[in-house]
Specification:
The C terminus is likely disordered. With 434 residues, the protein is an all-alpha fold. It is 60% helix and 3% strand. A three-stranded antiparallel β-sheet has the order 1-3-2. It has 23 helices and three strands. A hairpin with a 4-residue loop joins β2 and β3.
Length: 434
């Protein structure tokens, strides 16, 4: 007969995990203890001797057992709640291969850490633990897990968006349902909150990518979160580029129709010239995007000015001010200088206030220049090597002299190239064909 006393159950669990070498056997045993309420009650308590099993078990060696105990205690109504410090120590030292046998408990652990930190009104205290967990649990940073959206949401709750950057910099390219008990919304929530974080940090191109991934995720019907992502995507595009770009063809058509029926579509249609209409739309109700809307309105004169450069070669400051709805010539001058400095436009301002626009000169980053120089050096070294190899070939030289005496080369291409087949020469790909 199976024991019904939590102390006896805990003794049996302790005996099993300390005497069995097979991790699979331990994982199966812990998962199949029934009833589960009795199992969790036992894990929340002590051994029959009164000792706390956590004081005896080693985190690296007994990761599975410690994981079950911590998660049971995080959600226990009666047992002791583990401290945030203890949880951080576990996340720092646990053995990932063992933890992957219990993905559901890993999810419970991440949620429990977040919940505990919020209960203490210290969400920042959960960031380090969750970062250890998200960095060590998946086999590679490209795997999406249930920890990802919990981590990014915690960074937002702690108003510490920069803490999420080490995780956000790795694109998600792998999903393994055996690794993590993911649901559809996990992908949406991670990329949406990631986009919010990147927008807060004004990393516009990356925020645009995250919001687009959220908005265009495949599904039978669009989720409400996808509409929110599309709104933010459009505002981020207006802020960073002054215009929006079409959604990919695989985006759900219903989403586009719903967006066209929203005030945001009207906002885009009025952008960037009709500033008064933009401000009126902002006052009508901007739900959760007031900050982005205001930034878009603040940058409207910049994009209106840039559009002038496509039409006019020269304008004076007063005319530019009228076109971009800025009364002060000094403000117009400052805007021009800012745009010239940032590379948005190429222009010069004369002493009389006339502005001449020109095509921007080609610009190359230092990395691009270094790359080109290295290619030139590599090609130069290769040509030098080939010349030396040809100089060694008496057959080639004799044919070359004979061809010159005859007024041209009579040797077939394959005869020339055959001189190098045994010499180890490597021919570089032609740049136009790579």
């Amino acid at each position: 007969m199976a024991p019904s006393d939590p102390l006896q159950v805990m003794d049996a669990i302790f005996q099993k995990v300390t005497t069995t070498d097979s991790v699979i056997s331990i994982a199966t045993y812990l998962k199949n203890i029934n009833p589960q309420d009795l199992r969790d009650a036992a894990l929340s308590g002590t051994l029959s001797s009164g000792q706390d099993p956590l004081s005896i078990l080693s985190v690296p060696q007994n990761t599975l057992a410690v994981l079950y105990i911590l998660t049971a205690r995080l959600y226990s109504q009666s047992g002791p709640t583990p401290s945030l410090q203890l949880l951080e120590e576990f996340c720092r030292h646990f053995e990932p291969e063992q933890a992957r046998f219990a993905p559901d408990r890993v999810t419970l652990l991440a949620k429990g850490i977040q919940k505990l930190a919020l209960a203490h009104n210290t969400p920042r205290a959960a960031i380090q633990s969750l970062h250890y967990l998200i960095a060590r649990y998946p086999p590679h940073p490209s795997y999406l897990t249930t920890i990802h959206p919990i981590f990014t949401m915690t960074c937002l709750q702690a108003t510490n968006p920069a803490a999420a950057l080490p995780v956000l910099e790795y694109p998600i390219t792998n999903i393994d349902l055996h690794l993590s008990d993911l649901v559809y919304n996990d992908n949406l929530m991670y990329h949406y909150t990631g986009g919010v974080i990147l927008a807060m940090l004004k990393r516009w191109s990356e925020a645009e990518e995250f919001f687009e991934i959220t908005a265009t995720a495949p599904g039978s019907v669009p989720a409400a979160l996808q509409m929110e992502a599309l709104k933010k995507l459009r505002l981020v595009q207006l802020i960073s580029k002054g215009k929006v770009t079409p959604l990919p063809k695989y985006a759900h058509p219903i989403l586009s129709r719903q967006f066209k029926a929203s005030p945001y579509h009207q906002f885009i249609s009025s952008y960037p010239h009709n500033v008064d209409a933009l401000k009126e739309l902002l006052q009508k109700g901007a739900d959760k995007n007031v900050g982005l809307l205001r930034q878009a309105i603040d940058r409207a004169p910049r994009w209106a000015l840039k559009k002038l450069t496509a039409t006019y070669l020269s304008l004076n400051l007063a005319d530019i001010g009228k076109a971009v709805k800025i009364d002060s010539e000094d403000e117009v001058r400052q805007l021009l200088l800012d745009m010239i400095e940032s590379g948005d436009i190429s222009a010069s301002i004369a002493a009389d206030g006339s502005v001449t626009f020109s095509d921007p000169p080609p610009q190359f980053s230092r990395e691009q220049v270094d790359h080109v120089l290295k290619n030139v050096q590599d090609q130069g070294a290769l040509l030098e090597y080939l010349e030396k190899e040809m100089a060694k070939s008496k057959e080639y030289l004799s044919k070359a002299v004979k061809g010159r005496d005859d007024g041209g080369f009579s040797v077939a291409d394959e005869d020339v190239f055959a001189q190098f087949q045994g010499s180890g020469a490597i021919w570089a790909d032609e740049p136009g064909f790579t």
